[in-house]
Design a protein that fits this description.
Elements (H helix, E strand, L loop, with lengths): L11 H16 L2 E12 L8 E4 L4 E5 L4 E6 L4 E6 L8 E3 L5 E5 L4 E5 L5 E6 L4 E7 L6 E6 L4 E6 L5 E5 L12 E6 L5 E5 L4 E5 L5 E5 L8 E6 L5 E5 L4 E5 L5 E5 L13 E4 L4 E5 L4 E8 L1
């Protein structure tokens, strides 16, 4: 159950941040096409199925073959781990700059501190954790997890205490089947790529189902997912090999990385947006490409 909280009045600092955010929204809009800014080769992985942007130019990348690599932007490999993760978004950088990652076989979430010490952080009991996201809003941790029979999203606070479970809609139906990627929108919505349901499943902060997005009339198989400062949802689709761009209410806006935009032979599987509003895209090769898509 979600704990009740008292309503606090925004501080002067908070009001200033809110003003700055609304200023950003007024000055930013979608570009008519994407522009490639840079690309990075990632040593030690065969593909890029998930990206976590660390602090001070560090990049965490995982493939579909158990490898998790930390690299700098010059392509130097700083750390390589053999994990139990594959084609899921199984790692995330916390507000403190640590990396946390899921171990679905041992039902635990591990933490790697910035001095590369690895510790067990959260035990998930009978549930195998698949996907994980550390909130940019409050540092809370969202985890998509499964047993053989069911799936759910669990919310933890930053110290690892469980505070919420999201599992069923108001009719008692299971919301998730295989939550392989997870993120949070600026309004607190929890957005999940569910490969079994072939849908993006979105609930509000209290866990009520808002909408499910199943593509544009043809087959749709969602992978990496993220959101941006405008509340857009960006999700990689294995079928069309593009990124679907939605607004925060699930309305389809456009396809990114298409041949019409001059992007050839792109097979995006992971996507994230950095503080400079650039879109980072991981491909089925070992290249990460960075694009501008807002102006």
């Amino acid at each position: 159950m979600e704990t009740a909280s008292t309503q606090l009045k925004p501080t002067g600092k908070q009001r200033k941040q809110d003003r700055e955010k609304s200023d950003v929204k007024q000055t930013l809009s979608l570009s008519s096409s994407v522009t490639k800014v840079s690309e990075y080769k990632v040593p030690g992985v065969g593909a890029v199925y998930h990206i976590s942007l660390g602090k001070s130019g560090r990049l965490w990348v995982s493939d579909n073959d158990l490898y998790l690599v930390q690299t700098d932007l010059q392509g130097n490999q700083l750390l390589i781990l053999l994990t139990n993760g594959g084609y899921e978004g199984y790692h995330t950088v916390t507000q403190d700059g640590d990396l946390i990652y899921t171990d679905k076989n041992n039902k635990v979430i591990n933490k790697i501190t910035q001095d590369n010490t690895i510790t067990k952080f959260i035990k998930t009991e009978d549930w195998g954790p698949l996907s994980i996201h550390s909130s940019h809003i409050n540092g809370e941790i969202l985890v998509g997890m499964m047993t053989d029979e069911e799936a759910k999203v669990t919310r933890y606070n930053k110290t690892g205490t469980e505070i919420q479970n999201i599992q069923r809609d108001n009719k008692g139906q299971g919301l998730y089947s295989e939550p392989i990627y997870i993120t949070e929108n600026i309004n607190g919505d929890v957005c999940v790529s569910d490969s079994e349901k072939q849908a993006v499943v979105v609930v509000n902060k209290s866990g009520q189902h808002r909408f499910s997005y199943t593509g544009q009339g043809s087959e749709f198989n969602p992978y990496g997912i993220c959101t941006d400062v405008l509340g857009h949802i960006l999700v990689c689709d294995e079928i069309s090999n593009t990124v679907h761009l939605l607004d925060q209410d699930g309305q389809f806006l456009s396809l990114l990385l298409t041949e019409q935009e001059g992007v050839i032979n792109m097979y995006p599987r992971s996507v994230c947006v950095d503080d400079e509003k650039n879109m980072w895209v991981g491909d089925i090769d070992n290249i990460v490409k960075v694009y501008k898509y807002l102006k």
